[in-house]
């Protein structure tokens, strides 16, 4: 008998789970549900627009979506249009793959001023995520501060300083490109509370910052430790490479290009300055003791017009699933949440790792489903379709999505791969 599975969320974790189930045989009917009309989660709305090669994994997921056993229900929000409990009634197994979509706030005085943006909103804006279409960030100053020492901080800095030529083969939305092009921005400060040995940058991303056409990356050589350190051999290799790259930045000339990215370590933001909007940032110098940043009491300020906090993501609780508020994930034991209810990806283990890190979650949970679910027998798709019909929800099928995508590709000016629609209404209008 066919086992019916609803996967809530069409990001990497959701698609890897679908693939892993298909790898186990033909006995599964899989419906992937997403609140966005567009599939693929953060591959579309998080991965930077100039890193198209990283987005190539979508092609593999596309093949999965085309399989007979798989259906896509976009534009359907679980928790609003249909509940987790209703899905559990309709499907033999329900897999939560909803990611971690809440920001971590900048919890310091002034953190709520206009001009302070969580990276989630900022990356959503430059990636055409509909809810951030009108973020309209304040880019009217020559300097901006980015807080955080992970790849998302680098993404934000890089997207802001690359020129038109470097972005030509990206899918940066036009209104975003126009906002960046007309901005006087020439100094981006990337602040880390700890040192280069603790920074989470991967080396490919860091190295790219040394090869930008109009921007030079800088670091104070006094902030570079003599030796790299890491928590294991692999980490040590990475830190050595990063240190070499940063040594290259330390020798760069600030005036050699019109824009600058300043990597500043051992600096902890303590207050966003300004009356009605961001006018600057006050930071405290730190020292790292046993891996932790400790304030030294010495402060300094920079003038800037906006602050982007790239300090991590947090999952949002969903009704019908227990939530571990401390860890910020759905309570689960190795992906098992309850009877016939599972979690994968960032909602299962928190927001860390790269796209492929989510693959093992899908494999693990597909194994659980095979082991836990006996004969199946719940209606699955017809049950969901009935609920959506009764509620007048306009679900976007995978065929619909392909029509939307074809329009995005047709609207693009090569070498841009697509011109993304920036609102849900625009996407749905393609189908009318
Ligand atoms: C800004 C940014 C840039 C990144 N860049 C890279 C990179 O360059 N390379 C790399 O390897 N990794 C990158 N990552 C990490 C990578 O994106 C994640 O590892 C991965 O996307 C996590 O997968 P997920 O499926 O758990 O979550 P997501 O990708 O977030 O997918 C969750 C999906 O669930 C949907 N959803 C949420 N709630 C509901 C609901 N209630 N009902 C229905 N659907 C719902 C969402 O719309 C989304 O489609 C980046 C992450 C971020 C935040």
Report on this structure.
By secondary structure, the protein is an alpha/beta fold. The protein has 2 domains: 3-101 and 315-430, NAD(P)-binding Rossmann-like Domain (Rossmann fold, 3-Layer(aba) Sandwich), CATH 3.40.50.720; 102-312, FAD/NAD(P)-binding domain (3-Layer(bba) Sandwich). Helices cover 31% and strands 21% of the residues. The protein has 14 helices and 19 strands. It has helices at residues 12-23, 42-45, 57-65, 84-90, 119-126, 151-161, 174-181, 203-208, 233-250, 346-349, 359-372, 381-390, 398-411, 424-430; strands spanning 3-8, 28-33, 70-73, 93-96, 102-103, 116-118, 143-147, 187-191, 215-219, 259-264, 267-273, 280-289, 292-303, 306-309, 313-314, 323-324, 329-330, 336-338, 341-343. Strands 3-2-1-4-19-18 form a 6-stranded mixed β-sheet, with helices on both faces. Strand 1, helix 1 and strand 2 form a beta-alpha-beta unit. Helix 1 packs across helix 11 and helix 5 crosses helix 6. The longest helix is centred in the middle third of the chain and has 18 residues, at 233-250. The protein starts with a strand and ends with a helix. 45% of the residues are buried. The structure holds flavin-adenine dinucleotide. Flavin-adenine dinucleotide (FAD) is lined by residues 8-14, 33-36, 41-42, 46-47, 51, 54, 77-79, 97-99, 101, 123, 152, 155, 313, 318, 345-346, 353-355, 357-358.
